[in-house]
Amino acid sequence: MQPHSGPQVLDSTAIADAAGLREAGYWLHLVRAVEAAGRRLYLQGRLPGSFYDGYGQEATAVGAGLALAPRDIACPVIRDLAVHLIRGITPAEVLRHYLGKAGGPMDGRDGNVHIGSFERGTIPMISHLPEMLPVCMGVALSRMRRGEASAALGFCGDGSSSGGVFHETLNLAAVWKAPLVVIVERNRFAYMTPEDKYLAVPEIAARAAGYGIRSWSGDGNDVLEVRSLVGAALEHARSGGGPALVELFTYRMHGHGAHDDQRYVPPGELEAWALRDPLLRWHELAVEQLGWTAADQQALEARVASEVAAAVEDALAAPYPDPDGLAASVFAQ
Amino acid sequence: MSDTVTYVEAIRLALRTALGDDERVLVLGEDVGGGGGAFRATAGLQEEFGEQRVIDTPICESAFTGAAVGMALDGMRPVVEFQFSDFLTSGMNAIVNTAAKMHFRHGLGVPLVIRAPAAGGFAGGPFHSQNPEAWFLRTPGLKVACPATAEDAGLLLGAAIADPNPVLFFEQKSLYTRVKGEFTYDSSAPLSGAAVRRPGSDVTIVSYGATLHLALTAAEGLADEGIDCEVVDLRVLCPLDFDTVAASVEKTGRCVIAHEDYPDYGVAAELAARLAGELFRALDAPVGRVGARFWPIPFSPPLEQATLPTAEGIAEAVRELARF
Questions:
Q1: Which of B98, B105, B109 minimises the CB distance to A106?
Q2: CATH number, domain at B90?
Q3: Is the pLDDT of residue B212 over 60?
Q4: Are the Cβ atoms of A124 and B105 closer than 8 angstroms?
Q5: What structural domains and CATH numbers belong to chain A?
């Protein structure tokens, strides 16, 4: 990497990249701040259940979210809050949802990572992983049948790549040439279990050959690389090339949830991966490509801090949903 | 009569009508295309509507049911065939967790029909003979239908396809070619409502599915003994038409519930509890329950016969109540 040396004349591609890099920086900082606020509310005893964050994996969700086209459908999972934010769920809605308040996209019927807004392009996951992979595939298939260009972006962890539905879905998608991109977030843990207890191959992407589909793998902590790989995979799927598997290497820096003290993590791993933090990586790129200054950084952090503070205030003040509506929610009329 | 069809022909004609009337309707499942379905319920449909509307799947119930949930979320009307209702366990999450809870969690209807051939009596053994409706009846968000006649096979399937919710549609293998009736299709028909199949004044027999025919046989025999039975066919198990059951029991004061599923923890248990709780004063006798014995459905024909309910078993339960 070259150190930044004064103003540069940018060509049009570089200008587009510069805008994209700025945008990615905003989402990276926003999702980290929203999640920090959520963890804080949990630790203060004000947030029921637990809080599940993607600290250290933000570049995967941000890069993937930015690669989506408007009529693509995504099903993010536990570490992918940024995808929901990019698709239009606001920080206030996220925190209302986590607090079990009215006005979240699930209106208190569900909580924590089970969030989504179908009309804005995400499907709320169920807890069972990776059950949502075929569901988002079905949405994109339905859109393609109507002549719309659409791909499905389904997320799963390396842990849930062990489940039967993962294999069933990739085979079915391959047979149907369905527009499905599966992102495997290689974050090294399935809750408390390290990957050597659930994985016998060095690369999950290598399984793609067994289904006869395309695969990509890359650095999940580099937001531009993620956007580029996922963008290529989505375009491949949208243009009739069939499904694709994208494995993104990252690391789960926090516990499974805020209740998890990570006592099972081998010494030294967190420190080593902290050096590869996706926000630091982004900052290096921003300095290099945008001439990003300390003042720019302060302004960005102040912007997201004020947005998140307003969201926290909104969510804490929001009312709880009315239980009288529960019975009528069971069936569509 | 030219428009008399068997139960399975009514299913096929209902699918054909739905496919023809509504572009959003799709049929998918194992062997449904060129194979025409294990019970021939989809025979000829792929030839007529093409591979994009009548879709063969690999053996992967979780994946193809999940895909159908996604299609339904996006406005299609998928009709999924499970080859045997016993195999519903392989698609359970997509049904009871993803589809059933989507409207409650997120306000989105999932207009999905799952056709599942159920019932035993033909040496199918433990994995091709089950009646798993109770697994689904205690899942809020699912509707459950179980037609007993060829008319209802067509009528209720059309209603299920038109319904904005996930519907489990339990076809009765033992009735596929055994009962006949007029093909009836009306997509505006309600997916609800029990029917009185035989009026009577002494004892109410509540039944559904294949066992309804055993109940009617029992009622005919009991008439010769001077016991006049009213036979109620539930038709749709959720939503349950308890009013029709209650009106009958108010009149007779006695009730036997008979179905092929286990009476333990199932429809009969639920109805018995509601009758005891809501019609205690109308009852002149305890509520009787008849169903499969509480063990897996065995393969060997004499063992299976000793397990499943019979017309004589229903008649004996009625006689016992009539003595009160």
A1: B105
A2: 3.40.50.970
A3: yes
A4: yes
A5: 12-320 (3.40.50.970)
Residues B204, B177 share a domain: no
List, in order, residues 6 or more apart from A294 with CB less than 8 Å away.
none
What number of residues does chain B have?
A: 324
> Which chain B positions have a beta carbon within 8 Å of A329's beta carbon?
103-104, 107
Asked if B102 and B10 sit in the same domain, the reply is: yes
B140 has a chain A CB within 8 A of its CB: yes
**Which of A118, A330, A333 shows the shortest C-beta gap to B141?**
A330
pLDDT tens string B97-123: 999 999 999 999 999 999 999 999 999
User: B24 in a domain, yes or no?
Assistant: yes
Higher pLDDT, B207 or A9: B207
Exposure pattern of A251-281 as b/e (b: 16+ CB <10 Å)?
Answer: bbbbbbbbebeeeebeeeeeeebeebbbbeb
Q: Tell me whether residues A169 and B63 touch, CB distance under 8 A.
A: yes
- Residues shown for chain A: 333
Full domain range(s) for residue B271:
195-322
For tokens 């239009």, name the residue: A88
B61 plus B132 within the same structural domain: yes
Residues B89, A158: contact at Cβ < 8 Å?
A: no
Looking at the structure, tell me whether residues B205 and B317 fall in a common domain.
yes
> How many structural domains does chain B have?
2
Peptide bond into A179 cis (omega under 30): no
Nearest to B236 by CA among B111, B162, B308, B147: B147
Whether A195 contacts chain B with CB within 8 A: no
In a domain, residue B187? The reply is no
**Integer Cα distance of B18 and B289 in angstroms:** 37
Tell whether ipTM is more than 0.90. yes
Nearest to B57 by CA among B88, B78, B41, B81: B81
Nearest to A139 among B62, B70, B106 (CB): B70
Question: Residues A89-138: pLDDT tens digits?
Answer: 999 999 999 999 999 999 999 999 999 999 999 999 999 999 999 999 99
Q: Which residue has the tokens 């519903």?
A: B88
Summarize pLDDT for A225-234 with one digit per residue, the tens: 999 999 999 9
B125 and B243 in a single domain? The answer is: no
What would the mean pLDDT of A324-331 be, rounded to a whole number?
Answer: 97
Place of tokens 């900082």: A29
pTM over 0.90: yes
A11 pLDDT tier (thresholds 50, 70, 90): low
Q: Are residues B148 and B247 in the same domain?
A: no
Q: Domain boundary at B119, B152, B182, which?
A: B182
Is B103–A164 a contact, with Cβ atoms under 8 angstroms apart? no
Name the burial class of residue A322, with classes exposed (0-12), middle (13-18) and buried (19+) by CB atoms within 10 angstroms of its CB. exposed
Cite the beta strand spans of chain A per DSSP E: 73-75, 152-157, 180-186, 189-190, 193-194, 214-219, 244-249
Please give the Cα distance from A253 to A188 (Å, whole number).
Answer: 10
Both B170 and B21 in a single domain?
Answer: yes
Cβ contact A142–B76 (<8 Å): yes
Please indicate, yes or no, if residue B130 is contained in any of the structural domains. Answer: yes
Q: Is A71 in the B-facing interface, judged by CB distances under 8 Å?
A: no
Q: In terms of domains, do B157 and B259 share one?
A: no
**Distance from first CA to last CA of chain B, Å, rounded?**
45
Q: Give contacts of B93 with chain A, Cβ < 8 Å.
A: 126, 128, 131, 165
- Whether B213 is catalytic: no
Separation CA A146–CA B35 (nearest Å):
27
* CATH assignment of the domain containing B274: 3.40.50.920
